[in-house]
Amino acid sequence: MAEDRSGQIAVMFISERTGDDAEGYAAAADAMDRLAAQQPGYRGVDNVSADGLGITLSYWADDASAVAWRTHPEHSATREAGRGRWYKWYRLHVADIARSYSWTRE
């Protein structure tokens, strides 16, 4: 069942990949998922990708936690690698979640 995200910070990362070094990208994405989950204030992640387009939503307890993740040295280094190798472009949006709803088919 989905978690109530009310009051959390959502970091929305929307990207298009180059298609270069797919194995390197997958390894880096895996490493970043594991590293993010160890950070103070981390509350979870949702992601989807198809045809080189990706959307990743990471959830944080507060803005300070999201900023700390943005400036984490390993995350910063991987972001730079992504700019040089894996991404055609990306957009990032940060938002406060005012309300959160979910529904699940039984």
Automatic annotation (TrEMBL):
The keyword Oxidoreductase applies. GO terms for molecular function: monooxygenase activity. InterPro entries: ABM_dom, Dimeric_a/b-barrel, Jasmonate_Hydroxylase-like. Residues 19-80 form the ABM domain. Gene3D superfamilies: 3.30.70.100. Pfam families: ABM. SUPFAM superfamilies: Dimeric alpha+beta barrel. Keywords: Monooxygenase, Oxidoreductase. The keyword Ligase does not apply. This is Antibiotic biosynthesis monooxygenase. It comes from Sphingomonas gei.
